[in-house]
Specification:
- By secondary structure, the chain is α/β, with parallel strands linked by helices.
- It has one domain.
- The chain contains six helices and seven strands.
- The chain has helices at residues 2-16, 28-38, 45-66, 91-103, 119-146, 173-184, and strands at residues 71-78, 81-88, 109-112, 115-116, 155-160, 163-170, 191-198.
Length: 202
């Protein structure tokens, strides 16, 4: 019995290592909740390892090819599906980022949600909207952690200028609807785009 409990705890903390930063709360009670949920994340250990490999490859490719032309670039991967977020001035840069993602080994599908913005907006966003997005992502984290019926370990989220992109997996339409509803109520969120797949436990 003790051996079984120890293995479960080790699995929980191992999965926590790959939970995105925005899914970590400094509240000790939330951390305990996260550890318990992490042990039941619905990605297999093989998918977690593959997703991390894909994320690393795409991130490196975007940095090498596009450098600082993409503002706050983010690459999220869940079960080999990829979501790209960030902002660029030139639509061709967005297209290039999408091509780099699709060319990565093992990628099944790419959601290219990088926003194309004007120069004046870029200057404003780099200062003002960056702070707003950080606050929004922190609120998404806290509210989804506290929301019953939502397994936060299966979700990823990014905010770009107040537009929130949800990603990952919901076990039911009800869970997805609840998650979207929570995010929509957050101050300064202007739009919620869902890239979340719905698939029950097998």
């Amino acid at each position: 019995m003790l051996r079984t409990v120890s293995i479960s705890l080790l699995a929980a903390f191992a999965v926590m290592l790959v939970i995105p930063a925005q899914a970590i709360d400094l509240n000790p009670f939330s951390l305990i909740k996260s550890a318990v949920e992490a042990a039941a994340e619905d990605r297999s250990s093989g998918d977690i390892a593959t997703d991390l490999k894909i994320k690393t490859a795409i991130t490196a490719a975007i940095v090498d090819e596009l450098g600082t032309d993409v503002i706050s670039p983010n690459v999220d991967v869940y079960e080999q599906d990829v979501m790209l977020t960030g902002a660029v001035e030139d639509p061709k840069l967005k297209q290039k980022a999408g091509q780099l993602s699709k060319a990565a080994e093992g990628v099944k599908k790419t959601y290219n949600d990088i926003l194309v913005i004007k120069s004046i907006d870029k200057e404003k966003g780099a200062v003002e909207n960056f702070v707003d997005d950080t606050v929004i992502e922190s609120k998404v984290n806290a509210l989804l952690l506290d929301g019953t019926g939502v397994n936060v370990t299966n979700f990823r989220w990014r905010s770009v200028g107040g537009r929130v992109f949800l990603f990952g997996r919901a076990l039911s339409n009800g869970e997805l609807k609840k998650a979207i509803g929570i995010v929509k109520k957050i101050k300064n969120v202007t739009k919620v785009t869902s890239r979340v797949k719905v698939r029950p436990k097998s």
